[in-house]
């Protein structure tokens, strides 16, 4: 089962061959089952569009660069290193990401899903 926090979370996103999975994807049939009681409509995810990348996609290249070449004997050591690196990201960095995300989403809506350059 998927765990949102802790060392087990890292094993969900970082595999032994160093393949990174930057976000957890709920299978559509499960998402529909979950949302049915609330009567919320689940829209299918559109075709690939960089403007719709998960908001946290920018974190993974940063972490990958900062942790490159380091070896961790235990998943707890990796978790500690990742958490340490995440602590160095400032509130201003996050605010900038959210502002850009809002602009990208607005452009995506206005262009009916077409890709927008420049962000």
TrEMBL record:
Superkingdom field: Eukaryota
InterPro entries: RNaseH_sf, Transposase-MT_Hybrid
Organism: Elysia marginata
Coiled-coil positions: none
One Gene Ontology term of the molecular function aspect: nucleic acid binding
Record-linked Gene3D superfamilies: Ribonuclease H-like superfamily/Ribonuclease H (3.30.420.10)
Name of this chain's protein: Transposase
